[in-house]
Design goal:
Length: 489
Amino acid sequence: MSINIKRIEAVNRESRLGAITGYTGTVKDLVKKAKSGCLKNKERCFSQATNCSSGCAQGYLSRIMDAAIVNHGARGCSADVIGENTNFQWGQNIRNLEKRNVNVINTNMTEETTVFGGRSKLRNGIREAYKRFNPKAIFITTSCASAIIGDDIKSIADEIEAEINIPVVPVFCEGFRSKIWATGFDSAFHALLTRIVKPPKEKHPEIINMLTFNGSGRDYVIEILANFGLVPKFGVPFSTIDEISKMSESAATISICGTLGSYFGNGLEQKYGVPYVKSLQPHGIAGMDSWLRGLGKVVGKENEVEEYIKKEKEKIAPELKEIREKLKGKTAVVGMGPSFSHNYIRVLNELGIKVVWGASWHFDQQYDHGSIPESSIELSEKEYDVPISVCDQQNFEILNLLNKLKPDLYISRHPGTTVWPTKMGIPSVMVADEFSAFGYKGIIDLGYRIIDTLANNNLALSLSKRVKLPYTSWWFEQDTFKFLEEEVK
Ligand code: SF4
């Protein structure tokens, strides 16, 4: 097991999971190299942009209903709060909650702070967060500045915790800690595992921890699990500190995303014996089959699960056939986080679409349970060897690739990479909602969405005639991976 809960911070994904951000080849080659332990990262000698793991940690924890965040950094480090607040309000909307903003404070580290230290600013920030929000726990998210000057965040957290009598928990997520921004999720989960989740007082065999981002598909999940006498406990966004503290009492943990769930799911299994369901993501047909079978196995409901799968697949079969006929022969490029990317390649195949390239923002050579991601293994066992790359959202590579491949569709989970293909005239679908393509109903919905997108591409075509792209024709003539260096031996 790679999770060490005795440490005060999570080990980054590069060291823990062998995660990489640079690769080009095919899915069979990727998995073969990962299996044999010879997959090495390829560095880029040019990088256009990347992301910060602090955003993932902060964004995730700031949606806990009765917690507060103190971001100990320069004001710019809290720029992500705008997006986090949008997500928070979207989630409140789904749940019919009265709208409010996230409980986040920034300590406004300045040049002077970096010279003389940020201890008093941090103390004031924690006290202010306590006064303003009356939270049940406060998380301190670190920044590059606070880490570089070596502010002793743990001792300040302990000092104020004794004063205000609620957990004050450091979350070590400064951007330079890792090139893989998903490390921020692990930092957040590490804080929860080590300080918030309590040992079980009793066990609830009907309750299943369901790890999500926003949880838009709550009703469908509740409906599915009810067939097996199970009740989902959604988290951690929109949960309370008390609910999270009891996640050790559940019968199992399932996740909407392998990248998201690996640390917490495996951590709960390791620390409290709550089994984590290791399966494909529940997107599309094979994904939902695998997810439900994995769940059925850990809760002893295999027969009920098989009956449900059969019934639901029969229900959607005629509609799926129609959709497949309409999408037959279409081609797509996928650009998503690692887990979604390799799962969506399979989903698009189920819809009759051929994926001509799959880009993922990083690749974990293994999850915390020691296995290569299940979706990558499944793809590598198919006859068609999908060309793939690993790039941390380098738009210059994606646009170069799209210009060469000219697919019928580009599908991504991040608006920052969907907007540019649209401006090139390529029909693009942004899958912001993690429950898009969720299970048997979801794949049908996604199928219709793609059909609609392909039916009328006038917006993208009009934009492509009027918008000047930021890249020159020189770049489009170059090899897509010109700036990807050779493997470091
Ligand atoms: S990379 Fe560092 S400086 Fe930039 S936002 Fe993240 S924590 Fe702040």
